[in-house]
Design a protein that fits this description.
Length: about 250
């Protein structure tokens, strides 16, 4: 089976580094035109230069800003046929006792992981359903299916919410030709936050983690990108509302 996206326009968020950047590269390598979004202005500009893609630096927590950028992209480049939301993460937080968490800690993670996905789906989804064609893929996490190894309460709650949003949007969009799915990565060394988490385990903890994975290795951004390309392809036209664990058998 060959996967191709000849001249289709894909919008990839969280594209400045790691998983999002690998997804953008994979889509472009399969023929798509790709537009990158990320809150990291320097990082997304660097990714765009490397890939030869268009980009916007953008805080996806702003509903108004997301709507404006989607309008601009569709006016200048045509209809968005693929939306991959890889934005999210822990926003520099680490696991702490629940009594130490304040409102700003909680809301920052929900804005990054849930609000961003909802505003993007709100801006892009109805356009796709009007055209009766589209693919939406969210990057969730194993933390959306079970407790999080990060120990961050807001992170696992937000990723569980993203899984629920995936299923709800599939119910709403799939009858009109737009599939909505999520990929739940296992442990992937993809950015500074995951590297800090990995280092915090120490040699013994790292060995235990690898032993818990059937494939006996950590994942790579390219592993996740491969699964996203499949879900975004024509071959996945009857797959919707699903959460695909890509974790080497760790779940």
């Amino acid at each position: 089976m060959q996967i191709g996206f000849s001249n289709r326009l894909a919008l990839v968020t969280g594209a400045a580094q790691g998983i999002g950047r690998a997804i953008a590269k994979g889509l472009m390598g399969s023929g798509a035109r790709v537009h990158l979004l990320d809150i990291d202005e320097v990082g997304v500009a660097d990714a765009a230069r490397e890939l030869g893609a268009a980009y916007h630096p953008l805080d996806l927590a702003s509903r108004v800003a997301v709507g404006q950028v989607v309008d601009e992209i569709e006016r200048s480049a045509g209809p968005i046929e693929i939306l991959v939301n890889s934005a999210g993460g822990v926003r520099g937080q680490v696991g702490r006792p629940i009594q130490e968490i304040d409102e700003s800690d909680w809301y920052a993670i929900f804005q990054a992981n849930v609000d961003s996905a909802f505003w993007l789906a709100q801006a892009v989804g109805p356009r796709m359903t009007t055209r009766e064609r589209g693919r939406i893929v969210f990057i969730a996490s194993g933390a959306g299916l079970r407790p999080s190894k990060t120990g961050i309460q807001a992170y696992t709650a937000a990723k569980h919410a993203l899984v629920g949003l995936t299923k709800q949007l599939s119910w709403e969009f799939a009858p009109r030709g737009v599939t909505v799915n999520a990929v739940a990565p296992g442990f992937v060394l993809s950015n500074p936050s995951t590297r800090r988490q990995w280092e915090s385990y120490g040699p013994e903890g790292q060995a235990r983690l690898v032993e818990s994975i059937h494939a006996r290795r950590l994942g790579t951004p390219e592993d996740i990108a491969a699964s996203v390309l499949f879900l975004a392809s024509d071959a996945a036209g009857w797959i919707s509302g699903q959460v695909l664990s890509v974790d080497g058998g760790g779940s």
